């Protein structure tokens, strides 16, 4: 099976502090992963290694068949879609744009349109809006959308370039229950687009049916990695979250409960 991402003995230090410790992780063709852990556990640091924004202090990294140190990182990034709260820094520019312009801009990895747009680009954007159940917001300005609609528009933008890897970094952060479920409801549609999903969160209830594998991270180290049914156990999640927890499954979706602690 083809290797999509391979991190081998990866260590990453910042200001002499070891942030990632001996990371060994492989994503294979057809797998869709959730990276799960507490805030500050190293989830985003792993993403920054995968996308080439941080270079490992030690170890080997290969993404989409490209070994780091022997490949053009900016070219590689064009094959990776990324939706993150960090895009909020561009909110002032996004607010003035119409939805379809934002989606099409994903082809050029720009905020705003500065290159000639072909008719097929507009048609593709319309198709993405339809697929992601957003056609009704076409023609509206970004600032007039709900938070959940804005997040879905950014996902459509990321898909515009037909990425081979789509990274969703806490896409449901700050959303209410309805908006969260609308975003999560897109996962099966995204899977049909022949891209590999990396979904990052610290909420296990966001691990929907479309996610096949889970990587558990704690304090810069891997607790476990594998098929979600094998990894999402009481013991492994308790170790990851540093508190006793129980997991139950409802319609192939995991939910977390925290046992009541008896006070003597």
Automatic annotation (TrEMBL):
Coiled coil: none annotated. This is ABC transporter ATP-binding protein YlmA. Residues 5-244 form the ABC transporter domain. GO terms for molecular function: ATP binding; ATP hydrolysis activity. Pfam families: ABC_tran (PF00005). SUPFAM superfamilies: P-loop containing nucleoside triphosphate hydrolases. It comes from Oceanobacillus indicireducens. It comes from the Bacteria. SMART domains: AAA (SM00382). Keywords: ATP-binding, Nucleotide-binding.
């Amino acid at each position: 099976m083809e290797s999509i991402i391979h991190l081998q003995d990866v260590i990453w230090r910042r200001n002499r502090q070891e942030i990632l410790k001996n990371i060994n992780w492989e994503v294979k063709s057809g797998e869709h992963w959730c990276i799960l852990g507490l805030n500050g556990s190293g989830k985003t640091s792993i993403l920054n290694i995968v996308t080439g924004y941080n270079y490992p202090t030690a170890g080997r990294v290969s993404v989409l068949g490209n070994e780091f140190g022997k490949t053009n990182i900016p070219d590689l990034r064009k094959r990776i879609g990324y939706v993150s709260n960090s895009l909020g820094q561009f909110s002032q520019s996004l607010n003035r744009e119409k939805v379809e312009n934002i989606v099409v801009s994903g082809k050029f990895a720009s905020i705003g349109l500065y290159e000639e747009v072909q008719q097929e680009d507009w048609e593709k954007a319309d198709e993405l809006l339809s697929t992601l159940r957003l056609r009704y917001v076409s023609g509206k300005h970004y600032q007039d959308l709900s938070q959940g609609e804005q997040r879905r528009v950014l996902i459509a933008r990321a898909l515009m370039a037909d990425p081979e890897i789509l990274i969703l970094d806490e896409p449901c952060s700050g959303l209410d229950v309805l908006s969260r479920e609308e975003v999560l409801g897109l996962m099966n549609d995204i899977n049909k687009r022949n891209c590999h999903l990396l979904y990052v969160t610290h909420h296990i209830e966001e691990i929907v049916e479309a996610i096949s594998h889970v990587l558990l991270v704690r304090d810069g180290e891997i607790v476990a990695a594998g098929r979600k049914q094998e990894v999402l156990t009481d013991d492994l999640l308790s170790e990851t979250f540093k508190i006793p927890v129980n997991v139950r499954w409802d319609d192939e979706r995991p939910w977390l409960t925290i046992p009541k602690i008896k006070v003597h």
